[in-house]
Structure formats: structure tokens, C-alpha cells
Amino acid sequence: MREPFPEEALRAAAEIIDDVKARGLAAALEWSRRLDGVEPREVVVQPRGDPAADGSVVEAALEAARSLERVYARLRPADVVDYYEGVLRAVSWRPVERAALYVPARYISTLVMLAVPAKVAGVRDIYVVTPPRGVTPELLTVAERLGVRGVVSLGGPQGLAYAAFQIGVDMLAGPGGVYVQAAKYVLSRYVGIDGIEGPTELVVYAEGVEPRRAVAGALAQLEHGPASFALFLSRDRALVKEAGRIYAEERTSSMGSFEARAVSSLEEAARIIDEVAPEHLEVWGAPRLAQMVKNAGAISVDAPSPLLDYVAGISHVLPTGGSARWRGAVTPLTFMKPVGLAWLLGDTKLREYAVRLAEYEGFRRHADALR
């Protein structure tokens, strides 16, 4: 498992958060001036259609939103109601009331990938937190169409702290750099978070496909920076060798690391992938492998992962650093919580079993209340 942020980032984020918690807006503006070189005149901007927005970008973002909503509308869980031995029981799924979505500057696709599941979940007040340079005509226009209540024009820990303490959100969600993720970790003492997202990672398995097509998705994900990582697997040793050659040919100083490895079977590939538990998995020419793998944030079959990043209908806010072993992509469930209810409609034989358990555990007053 890779560390999502260094200790230095954690200390810096904690300092900023403590300051904003103590001094409020004045501290948030001061940190914005120091770190981003900008003190926004309007901290919470009302989303609005802006005639200066690039219409083609807005259209693409809204089509991505429609694609995502078609899938996620079916994921909203139904309440469960059951009657047993005099007790009416229910589990009711209820959304958080306020959520803040962190959108890195100009990542309008990330706005879609977070706002749509929050909207489908039924979150009442959706806020976007983005650096001042991220408050573009396109973002404001799309945010309005997606039902966002306000755009906080503060980046990094100061923006998230402002949302947590000044707006009073219940939850923070979204990707971002090491300081954003460190801030989410610190703020998880006060509000909910979707998870801690580290550097981008990808595993590619390929066979029977043209080498440059097989490697293109890896090169795309490595575009996210030097900390990103891609692992290329294949039973075809010639393809493994060619993949390594293409990476060496295309590599730039700003790209992440790449490893190409031969495997003897699909079973071995599945075992390696499950151990890595990657954010993205691309499978080329072996669709059965997609069913064999248990641990991956999202799987693209015979398609490059950027298709999923933008329009395939699954959120690109995915687990990293091996956390795909226990969680998945952001969905409406990310913004919802199950609330249990029990209604006693008459005497029940269940009471006696409860008394026995309470007495065994040493809770005398629990047993008295049940009697």
C-alpha cells in the first residue's frame, strides 16, 4: 500500500485547519493569499449560467452527467421494512444534508463525477470547493445545471476547512493533491469523508492487441504526474517487451513510473491485480479476467481508462493505494447512511433473549429496562 501523503503535508494541513477553525474567514483568506496568490472577492459564488462559457465544453460535461445519472439512479437503495415477533423493523436510507465536493482547478469532469451521485442521493445542499482559478464560466454553468448551491473559491486545506467550519457541511468528498488529502484526513475528526485518495494508479492486462493501443491508457494515467504508477501484464512476452520500449520512447520527466511484467496465466494475473488493488484496471483481449478480479476501483474492457474517466457512466473518483480491497468508486451510497428503526407493536418473545444477553454481558440496567 502506498502512502497517500507525507507527514510534512499532514503537519501543514493541520496548521491551516486549526487556524481557520479558530479565526474563520480571515484565516482562510490569508492562507489563500499566501498559497494561491489570490484573495477572492467573493468567497461563496452563486452558480449561474455564464454566456462566456464554452458551449461545447458545457455540452460535453452535461452529456457525461446524463450518462452517469442513468447508472447511478438505479443504485439509490430502497428502504427495507420487516415484521417479526411483534416488532416492526426498518432500515431507511437517508442522505447527508450538506456535502462539499473538492474539484481541482479546471477539472470540470470531477464536478460531474461528484455532483451527480450527491444529487441522486438527495443531498439537500451541495457545495463545490475549488481554487480561485477553478471558478470558470464553464464550472459555474455546469454547477447550476447540476443543482449546486454554492462554489467556495478557496483551494486546498483552507477551502475544505472553510466548508467544514463556516458552512457546516456534514461531509467532504473528492480527489486532489497531497495537501487536500491530508486535510481530509485531519478534518475526518469533524465531518465525514469519502476516503483518502493518493496518486493515480493503473494495471493493464493485454493480449492479442496492437501494442500502442494497449499502452495508450497507461500513458494517459501517468500524465497525472511523477507519483502516478502503471503496471503492464501479459502472457505475451513480446508484447511485454514492446510495452516497455514504447514507455521508454514516450516518457517525459513529468510522467509517473511504469513496469512491464510477463505472467504465465490469467490466474497469476488476477492474483497480482488483487494484491495491487489498483484504482484503474484495463483488460484487453481477455474479458474473462475482468470477472476473475476482486479488487479494482473500476475496470475498462477493450477500452482505455480515460473513457471511464469522462463519459462511461461510472465516477472517476476511485479508491487508490490498495484501498480498492474494501471500498469502491463514489456513488450515491457515499452520501447516504442507513438509519435503523424498531417499533414495538406488542409483547414479544424476543424480549427474553435480549434480557439473557444483557445479563451475560453484565448490563443490569439494560435487563431491567427490557423487563
UniProtKB/TrEMBL annotation:
Single Gene Ontology MF annotation: metal ion binding
UniProt-listed PROSITE patterns: HISOL_DEHYDROGENASE
Signal sequence, renumbered to the chain: none
Cofactor section: Zn(2+)
Listed Gene3D superfamilies: 1.20.5.1300, Nitrogenase molybdenum iron protein domain
Top-rank taxon, per record: Archaea
GO biological process, one term: L-histidine biosynthetic process
Pfam families registered for this protein in UniProt: Histidinol_dh
Keywords associated with the record: Metal-binding, Oxidoreductase, Zinc
A Gene Ontology term for the protein's cellular component: cytoplasm
Family classification: Belongs to the histidinol dehydrogenase family.
Protein name (Swiss-Prot/TrEMBL): Histidinol dehydrogenase
Species for this entry: Thermoproteus uzoniensis (strain 768-20)
